[in-house]
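Write out the 3D structure for:
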Amino acid sequence: MKITWLGHSGFRIEIEQAVLLVDPWLTGNPMFPEARRDEAVAGATHVLVSHGHGDHSGNAVGLCKELGIPMVGIYDLVSWWSGKEGIEGIGFNKGGTVDLGGARVTMVAASHSSSVAGADGMPVYAGNEAGFMIAGEGHVIYFSGDTDIMADMGWMGEYHAPDIGILCAGGHFTMDMKRAAFAARKYFDFKTVIPCHYRTFPLLEQSAEALKAGLPGVTVTEPQVLVPIEI
């Protein structure tokens, strides 16, 4: 399995026979080197979107068209984009599981919001925000999407037993490092934690030291853009 950060909350996850582009925001992402775009998307099989905000879905439709691959995510948003843009979509909802090239992806709750920019620039409802449990190769990855701490993490951790957590932790719009550490410590038994949704802008946290300090005994890996983490 390879987990590769694309900057902000974007990841390339190679698991089973799938190559998932999760929340791909490449164009305009100050963390992402545009000159390495082809490398980042090569061989992708699916685009997985947690919610509609542009810093998560900015390149989702374009990549689906360019690569001829389906978008996977909340039914409302995927159905709307499928009809509007003519892309293939796999729409499902919280509690549902889809098989993506042998990887079993279950949609779970998140606590945030979800919208896309309307014609006048004002936000337009885009279905609910979500996270994902991605199971394959003997591991379960919890991709939190954008969220705060929530009690649902209790049953999610117990039922799905993820050993890898990809957690938003930049603060302001999501959990910060201390809150992410609290959630991981209280609700999960991670072996590996990878922070995201940080360092992109000065408004967000720039270091994961508080996350590391709050999770003794857990491997907290600060990702580097386009450097694969092999598990």
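The chain has a mean pLDDT of 96.
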